[in-house]
Fold this protein.
Amino acid sequence: MFIILAGPPGAGKGTQAKQISKRFSIPHISTGDILRKSKHLTDEEKEIVNTGGLISDDRMGEIVKKRLEEPDCNQGWLLDGFPRNRKQALFLEENLPVEIRPRVLYLEVPDEEIIDRLSKRLTCESCHAVFHKDANPPEKEGICDECGGNLVTRKDDQPDVIQKRLEVFHEKTEPLLKLYDEKDMLITVKAGDDRGISKVFSLILRELQPTE
Ligand code: AMP
């Protein structure tokens, strides 16, 4: 199964991606995680990531192409965070074998909810697990339940950066959804209004495996 997971920042893509990847035994490829873990970013690129801008399309294309060529991607993958604009979508289309037609899963969440979620999000410095100060707090304050790492607020989860990331999403990424819809590749799942992680996951499964 080949899936492009789309949605505004804070829509729950990372959380759902982990479950989808496990369920279908496909690698979860998050371009944001790749960038945050990379030791080869220039100072300028680090600044772009921290302030909610977009890294250059050529650089992202190179990173994604290399990752998709790894053997674990032969039978499927879940791309989270790519493509983010028209040029990246075109790049992906041109670099995939014609028989691969990914499904584009869009997690739809209203902006007000995104702002609330991201401003209260805590992320583990070590394993990148995410928590929410109210809705999904860690058992021990400041400590990751999964690996014991430190929980921090990501630099790009500061209020002004959240606003910028949302603007970038609406301006650059949202138009892609229309494009994918016209190609009949789009699946929209309503992932807001406190539906909860497991409810959203079951809605996703219903779309991906309608016969089960
Ligand atoms: P994310 O975790 O997907 O929200 O990504 C965090 C940040 O990494 C984004 O705000 C961008 O600065 C950068 N980034 C991730 N994916 C891409 C992409 N496909 N194109 C450009 N920049 C990206």
User: Anything to note?
Assistant: The pocket of adenosine monophosphate is lined by residues 9, 31-32, 35, 48-49, 52-55, 60, 81-82, 84, 88, 156, 165 (CB under 6 Å). The two ends are 16 Å apart (CA to CA). Strands lie at 2-6, 28-30, 77-80, 103-108, 121-124, 130-132, 151-152, 186-190.
